[in-house]
Amino acid sequence: MAQGEDGVLSGVRVVEYADFVSGPYSGRHLAELGAEVIKVEPPGFGDSARRTGPYAHDDPASDNSLLFNYLNVNKLGVTLNLQSETGREWFLKLLEDADVFLYGGSAGQLDRLRLSYREVCLVTPRIIGVYLTPFGLSGPYRDFQGGELVMAHVGGLASVTAGALADPDRPPLKPGGHQALMIAGLYGAMATLHALFARETTGQGQEVDVSEFEAVTSFQAGGMIRQAFSREATTREAQGSFLYPAQDGTVAINPMQDYMWRAMAGVMGNPEWADRPEFSTRAGRTANRRELFDLVSGWTSQFLKEELYQRLQGARVPAFPTNTVADVLRSEHLRERGFFEEVPLPSGEKPLAPGRRYRLPRGMPGGGRAAPRLGEHTAQVLTERLGLAREDLVTAFELGVI
Amino acid sequence: MTDRRLPLEGVTIADFTWVIAGPRATQFLGAMGARIIKIEGPYRPDQFRSSPTEIPGADSENYSVTFWGLNYSKLGCTIDFTQPKGRELALKLVSISDVVTENYAYGAMEKAGLAYDDLRNVRPDIIMVSSCALGKTGPSKGHVTYGALQHAFTGLNSVTGYEGEDAGAVGGAFSDQTTGATLCTAVLAALWHRKRTGEGQHIDVAMAETTMAQIPEFFLDYTVNGRVAGPQGNSERGAAPHNCFRCRGDGWLAISIRNQEEWERFSAVMSDPEWTRDPRFADQLRRWRNRHELELLVEGWTRAQDATDAMHLLQHAGVPAGASYSSYDLFENPHLSTRDALVELEQTVVGRKPVARLPYLLNPGPNGRYFPAPLLGEHNDLVFREVLGLSDAEIEELRASRVIR
To answer: Could B339 and A257 be called an inter-chain contact, meaning their C-beta atoms sit closer than 8 Å?
Structure first.
């Protein structure tokens, strides 16, 4: 957020020790809302997202990761080696002023770092400890290793993802990008706000245990609950069934309600087959979806995807073209809404990217500061906040503490 | 002693949402202690009351399984707010509410005279959170959607699929779910703002935008590098083996080897077969370059394994691995059960069945308040008589004119 402007969480101080995507994405949200987020990274490599592409101008360097630079805008960056006693001491001192400790990493690493809620609470009694770990802080999978691939599969996302040609003999697929970890990050932000409200009520902080696994499986909650009513396996093949061929790609169409189907039949020029009674109800269309798909495809394949999109939406039939990111960036609609925002990069460039998920007209000023270069604010934060002398910093640097 | 009150106690939300995204958000807020009053058309209820999966033998409005899973911790009433008297009643409810949530297609609330300005007239500090396909401004604001179509529109599908092939499809209610979490977060942020400043506001969320926010690195790869990335399958640059492998029976197992240490542990679990010492696989970069050959060999091992057993075997050796599960497998997952990810609720029509709790745990809590989804109009009396103070005669008149049911 822009310096000096008042955000919803102005005055809330967050210390983040979170690696890669999930925890840092929670931190980004809190920073968007005006919280001060001090991101602490291990000296040397830093956050592993710094070594994850794509990189600006395909130039691989730790300040060039576009993923890292997106996830960490508006944070202060400090390096501290928490394995050294001094590094740990300074870190705990940073926590003394914090409202939220945001951890993102494995449960095993957390044990080794001795930063459990019980431990940080001794330092800062009212602190809220938000822990994003692969499988949570309890349960039989507690010490399992995570990562996007593992989460997308074990958490069920792959069971509802299909390739262009669905084939049960080919491997299940993760969705593109880091969907599982981004979801966990979003829930991490929500959970932090929840805990901040709780602290207003009780006067006390608490441990917030965000399991990436649970975050992902919660997206399959509907499917899981259905199992309690009738045990039924799901298939990946059904997932692409909304995608109809156009001359230049595909169009996603879902005339779920009967009135939508009638409207769509109208757009198609009311072919005889569209009147068949088995297609007149939702249950009938579902039961006969293969045949219907072929019939509708015969119609859609005569047109360009944009043409289909406009004609169907003109009749209020839910339909959207399959776009690439380049197509979406050209969307006049999204540009007019001001959705795409400049992401300040450490190099000074300001490329466009998806903006905030939701925009509060009040309390969320937008804009702001580039993600920190590795250790960019170490000296500033440690001298201003902890009152360390320059000489201490020089020694600490040489010993690898910072 | 700790105060055990829930954090949103005292907050009232007039909830006009339906289908998935909105109901998901408001049930979370209900679990946090807010009083959620769900408003449905008496003769046009939430579409998901009757779909997609019906409970055998149950009255079609009460219930579908999907509705049950998305509407816990809410009160339910019916108001036909397209009628003038219904609008008046809805505004009365708004006047005693802190938040209004809605996710109708653009135009529904506006046509009914329930746009933000109308709400603000009766409750100046109201927080309104709206969500529709493309938002309430811009030339295409009227476009209608179901969540899954946003996977196509936003580019998410374009980066999903087998490497080098055409776009695939992310299915399920992915976009609805990300939107639901977004709406809930937006309500919390707006409530915090109001607590500090006394100001309400209108938040206009677009499902398309919340979905695009999930793939920022692909947008930046285009705006900075000019690259339009395609599907990458299960691969991650520099990691190999890194795929999902066929196991015994119908099972599949994802294995993710990202460094030398994990590779050595993985080889040890397989009892170090000869091929693991092949110079082509000697370090991470070589394994990445020769990953296709490598992954065929790995599959030779996984084909003899049970997916779940192999996951345990590998994970206990410190190797990232996960069986590729569906909701069918996850329903009785021992880890989720230990953490009570599903909470059982008792209700007249459905009986004792589970719902998915908030997707995180608070310690010491309280962790949330859960009660079953309302039958259609179940709390009409409570809402109209006790909350709004209407008389029996007034309620009868509304019922006679089909404003309520």
So the answer is: no
Domains of chain B (ranges, CATH numbers):
12-214+339-400 (3.40.50.10540), 242-328 (3.30.1540.10)
Average pLDDT of chain B to the nearest whole number? 95
Pairing of strands B62-64, B54-59: antiparallel
**Same structural domain, A23 and A134:** yes
Question: Which of B51, B68, B185 to mutate to test binding with chain A, by most A CBs within 10 Å of its CB?
Answer: B185
Q: Which residues 6+ apart lie within 8 Å of B69 measured at CB?
A: A221, A222, A225, A226, B355, B356
Same domain, A168 and A19: yes
Give pLDDT tens digits for A7-30.
999 999 999 999 999 999 999 999
- Name the token pair of B355: 């719902």
> Do A140 and A281 belong together in one domain?
no
Residues 175-194 of B with CB under 8 A from A: 177-178, 181-186, 188-193
Q: Does B6 touch chain A (CB under 8 A)?
A: yes
In a domain, A239, yes or no: no
Q: What is the CATH number of the domain that holds A345?
A: 3.40.50.10540
CB A32 within 8 A of CB A10: no
Residue range(s) defining the domain that contains residue A288: 255-317
Average pLDDT, whole number, for chain A? Answer: 94
Q: What is the pLDDT of residues B349-389, one digit of tens each?
A: 888 999 999 999 999 999 999 999 999 999 999 999 999 99
Q: Which residues of A348-359 are buried (b: 16+ CB within 10 A; e: fewer)?
A: eeebbbbbbbbb
- Say whether pLDDT at A282 is over 90: no
Cβ separation B215–A144 shorter than 8 A: no
Please name the member of B151, B192, B219 whose beta carbon is closest to the beta carbon of A354. B219
In a domain, A8, yes or no: no
Min mean pLDDT across A68-77, A390-399, B302-311 is at A390-399
Q: Which of B99, B214, B350, B370 best tests the A interface by mutation, with the highest count of A CBs <10 A?
A: B214
Nearest to B252 among A172, A178, A361 (CB): A172
Is residue A291 located within the same domain as residue A362?
no
Please indicate whether, in this complex, the C-beta atoms of A353 and B152 are within 8 angstroms of each other. no
For helices A258-267 and A305-314, give the axis angle rounded to 10 degrees.
120
Q: Which of residues 277-316 of B touch A (CB under 8 A)?
A: 311, 315
| Poorest-pLDDT segment among A339-348, B62-71, B295-304, B385-394 | B62-71
Residue range B323-330: average pLDDT? 95
Q: Residues B158-176: what's their mean pLDDT?
A: 93
> Distance between CA atoms of A214 and B330, rounded to whole angstroms?
10
Neighbours of A223 (CB within 10 A): 25
